[in-house]
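Quick check before the chapter quiz. The format below is the same one you will see on the exam, so make sure you can read both the input and the output lines.
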Amino acid sequence: MSAPMAAPAEPERARPRSESRPPSGGWRIVAAKELADHLGSTRFVVLFVVLGLAGASAVYSVSQQITSVASGVGTTESLFPLLFTLSASDIAAATQQAANTPLPSFVALISLLAPLLGIAFGFDAVNRERSDRTLPRLLAQPIYRDDVINGKFAAGLAAIGTALGAVLLIIAAWGVIQLGVVPTAEDVARLAVWYVVAIVYIGFWLALATLCSVVMRRAASSALVAISAWLVVSLFGGLLISTVVGLLSPLSSTPTTAEVIANGHLQDALTRISPDGMFQIATQAILDPHVTAGILTIDQRVAVAQQGAPGSILSLDQSLLVVGPQVLAIVALSVVCFALAYIAFMRQEVRA
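Here is the expected output.
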């Protein structure tokens, strides 16, 4: 008698889609964890306090000078943006008075110090995980590899936005009290646009620091390279540009008009390709509605505070058209740096 036939094997049930692939929002999980670490870290508190104290000192000093030179102004139009773009030394030099402080303007301090925020939150984004031997465990979680670097960059940008936004709101409120001028709706809009541009500019330094963190194994090395780049661009950039202009377009002992024009055009062109120079040009054009074809001098800006606009006033959308190329260039630099960091991280081998 023949044995009974075995029942056909039941086909294996397909796993649900949620079990077969990582969650699509894995970068949000990484970003939330990193952001919580950033906001509770000592570096965040120290940088926030330093940035706040420096900005408050600059705004307080310039508010006193603006009040003294603009006491006879019949209108308060455009006085509030000058609170951030002028320094007490600028006003004192133009009005032949004694300056009460050598501090630069608020936006000049942001241009100088804010890149440290990007460097501080990006120089050890990846190599810290590697040195602590936590990167293999992190990549072993059910998330994509690119979610790690995307989440870390998003968390750093969110921490920077939180710090800069809080400092800007506190200092603006203090400036209103000191100056006694309530900003108009357009003034608030200009500050909001400048805030976005500043975040983009600091994001460039965050992307550069993240690239250094991915390429270099040690956090100290990546911090050294990023800080060196910051020093070259922010502190020695003007000296380097002047040196290059002097070599390529020198001025004779009795310079002609053509030599002066060529020298000025070359210096302006080199300034516009520097990240710091592009940010400063965009800053003044956004916060100063009197900037039309070019950047106003110190004397002209003080004259604005004393007598009003020397010419036509640009609306916000017209100012955005003036600074459009600079803002797009900063965005492009940020995208290039982060793309290089992304590609390098995706190609790296991570061993347990």
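If your answer matched, good. Confidence is low (pLDDT under 50) at residues 9-20, 72-76, 293-311.
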